[in-house]
Specification:
Layout lengths: L2 H7 L1 H7 L7 H16 L5 H5 L2 H10 L7 H17 L35 E6 L11 E6 L6 H12 L1 H14 L10 H27 L11 H10 L11 H12 L13 H24 L2
Antiparallel strand pairs: 1-2
Helix pairs in contact: 3-5, 6-9, 8-9, 9-11, 11-12
GO molecular function: hydrolase activity
Pfam families: Tnp_DNA_bind
EC number: 3.1.-.-
Length: 297
């Protein structure tokens, strides 16, 4: 693949890597190569994704390197996420990471605390109003210490809780799409570093899926490059309905069609699986295009 093609097709990787702070510039270059290779082979083994011994050996040396930490790998992604936050209006819900929080070191008091501090809680009780026939209505009882002073406040908190399925979906991509559990890297440090890389890939797949559902009228270049748009248009023909769709929606639907999405009028929006399958096919198609163009001069 030509240098121009590589840069043009991987702008998103540049954004997630640029602000990373490794101790050695060579480690950053190796990380970028590993991220690119694993993105091209999401769900495959490291040797399959790397395609040759040099890159495979580089990946296996990078992951256990004592100078590489999860923070190094995710630092650039965190900075890029912060930039996306700044460009977004309204409240931003951020997960609190407590996985590395240590317990209090010292003596343990064995007596019981007689009185806990008062905590003002609100119970939000929501019941589905028009449940489909044949199943009981969905019922939620949420307890929160956030202020709830009106019906609008209660609905807002319910909407926030409804976002939880997105977290579960992202974990599903990490587990089933990237197949983190099947890597067999033997040590916890290696696995933690690989999972950190997979977190970036999982975010990208999930982000593409949600972009199609939540921001269909955004510019197509937000998700795909101009060359990818052209290749999708050549490989996947427009239906009369999709020909009238916004450019971003049309490109992402075509991407999903490469992954097996049928795009019928009655079909729900494409999910994560068909999106990442489609992206893998598009990467191969783009590689073939670049090779053919080089051969033809």
């Amino acid at each position: 693949m030509t240098g121009a093609g590589r840069v043009d097709g991987e702008d998103w990787i540049n954004r997630e890597v640029t602000d990373s702070s490794f101790q050695d510039a060579r480690l950053r270059r190796r990380f970028r190569t590993l991220l690119e290779r694993l993105w091209s082979g999401v769900g495959q083994t490291i040797p399959f994704a790397c395609q040759d011994w040099a890159n495979t050996k580089g990946a296996y040396r990078f992951l256990p390197n004592e100078r590489v930490s999860e923070q190094d790998i995710l630092g650039g992604h965190f900075q890029a996420s912060a930039e996306r936050f700044r460009a977004t209006e309204g409240p931003i819900l951020v997960l609190q990471d407590t996985t590395s929080r240590s317990g209090l070191v010292g003596k343990t008091e064995l007596y019981k605390q007689r009185r806990y501090p008062d905590l003002r809680l609100t119970v939000i009780h929501a019941l589905e109003a028009a449940a489909p026939a044949g199943r009981p209505p969905i019922e939620w009882k949420l307890i929160t210490d956030l202020p709830v002073k009106s019906r609008a406040d209660a609905i807002e908190k319910l909407d926030w809780y409804a976002m939880r399925w997105k977290i579960e979906t992202c974990h599903k991509i990490l587990k089933s799409g990237c197949k983190a559990e099947e890597s067999k890297l033997r040590t916890a440090d290696r696995l933690a570093n690989l999972i950190s890389v997979f977190c970036i890939l999982s975010w990208r797949i999930f982000w593409l899926t949600m972009l199609n559902r939540c921001a269909a009228h955004a510019p197509a270049q937000l998700a795909v490059t101009q060359r990818e748009v052209e290749l999708l248009d050549r490989v996947v023909k427009d239906t009369p309905r999709m020909a009238q769709a916004p450019p971003l929606l049309r490109s992402l639907i075509k991407l999903a069609q490469l992954g097996g999405y049928l795009a019928r009028a009655s079909d729900p929006p494409p999910g994560n699986t068909v999106v990442w399958r489609g992206m893998r096919r598009l990467i191969d198609i783009q590689l073939g295009y670049e090779l053919a163009r080089d051969d033809c001069g």
